[in-house]
Amino acid sequence: MDERAESWLELLLEDAEPAAYEALRQRRLAAATQEAERERTAAEALRAERLRSRLRERQQRARELAALGDLALRLTGTHQRGALLQESVAQARRLLDVDVAYLALTGSDGKMAIEVTDGSTGPRLRGIVLEPSSGLAGRVVERGEPVQSTDYLDDAGLRHAPGVDDVARAERLRTILGAPLRLRGETLGVLMVAQRRVRSFTGQETSLLSSLAAYAAVAIDNARLIERLRDHVTTVDRAVALHEDLLRAALRGGGVEEAVTGLSRVVAGTVRFEDEAGRTVATGRNGSAAVPDDGTDRCTRTVPVSSSAVRFGTLRVSTSTPLDEDSQRLLERAAMTIALVVAAERAASDAERRSAAELLEALVAGEVEDTSAFERRARTRGLDVARGHTVAVADLDGAPALARLAARHGGLSGVVRGRAVGILDTRPEELRDQLAGVTAGLGGPAHGVAGLAAAYRDAAACLSVLHALDRADVRAAPADLGPYRYLLSASGRADAQRFVHATIGPLLDHDARHRTDLTGTADAFLTQGRGHTATAAALTIHPNTLYQRLERIAERLGDTWRHGDRALDVHLALRLHRLARTLGEPPT
């Protein structure tokens, strides 16, 4: 690794600030003696900055997800409401790095009382009663969504209460952000964080506080439920068993099937989860995924499975008799947990697709700077670079087929530069039948980063040639393209250009000088089997016009251009020229 790469890498390893990258870039530019070196330095700096930003974002997302998972475990570990509330505000203060966090719960009279605080300078905040519609908390309840006040005491848009303002002034609170604790359309309270200086919370921070509030709402409601049912041991056991089963399924990544099966252990009848299109995803009955249809389930209860912004589907329970109130509550809570499971599954799937796309993009773009690190990342995604793989490139409609083959044979698939790409642990001849109905270029088998990148270029070029030849539902490697394979390599293109120039060069020169298309006329004439009527119709010109053009072609190529082997050479040269233009080659 050269000194330049070590310098960028050292900045990344040291988690340096943007100013350090800019300083290094300026030094490199100042030391550069050639324009190409300056352009290369600018490109390296841009890649390093992009990588730094990506690493920072992922580190932040990882910290937040880990913290949310830790909070879920902590909240699950206790059913004491006071401990749940204190844990919620402590986590909110820590995750959002604020001075104060506090939580107010709504009473039966609609008023809210601040029950727990974290970071306050005294006991003034705790016990404060907030009137309905007053202050920032009232605005949160009215809107049912997060609300931020950049400078609370001077915020004329809020309805202020003197006693509350006095406490805010004593605590020196400036910026306040609140999120509702909502459950089944009811606001249980408000989780708020505050800063003793003016601060603008970002959308990501607001979303994080909303997630914390959602966790707290579920945990608080679970605690309330358990408190109400403490004398009913059987019902409590059902609630605890369901909560633990579903939470374990969510944290373990067990999937929707496990969550539905767990729900069927504690709720009578047949449990089904249907996605947003109405398709049955998972079923359960008596703790088993196998569901016999015995015709005894006549009553059906449905509950939407959704987050605050996305509907994932419907949870449907069919029983012989209507569900009791306790079972309905369990069903509603289960729907929330299943929503978390589905969201986690989709997020994981999206992350896997992004990871695969990033690996493929780096490979095909030739941007793999650390081969060992790339190979390690690829192995975690199922791609062993040391093994021989076939590279397939298809249009986007071939992406599902390539994904299935990657899962079946091993390898990697994704969408790169608007095309579906698969690196598959199999040989090209084995893919032809398995990709039936898909037009694809094939490269390889190849191994190693450089080899796979070269195989991708071959496969991509093959697909372009197939499109140019109007060949659909064909899987072709370079060897399958006959004389057109010359267009796939630099030396081959050079040979093809020499052949084209020697065969039809005068015709191309004439078209270039006079802006005519005698080349197209010659191509159409030979393609139509040298039939004058068919050629005139294909070109939508009068037959006399065609005869005049053919005479001008003969003046430049000779009278024998349309006969025998000479016609074959001319036709091949015309086809190679047309393909070269389609593939973006420089004009011959």
TrEMBL record:
Q: Which residues form the GAF domain?
A: 80-230
Q: Does the keyword Coiled coil apply?
A: yes
List where this protein forms a coiled coil.
29-68
Identify the keywords attached in UniProt to this record, alphabetized: Coiled coil
Q: Which domain of life is it from?
A: Bacteria
| A Pfam family this chain is assigned to | GAF_2
Give the similarity note. Belongs to the CdaR family.
- Protein name, per record: GAF domain-containing protein
Question: Which organism's genome codes for this protein?
Answer: Streptomyces diacarni
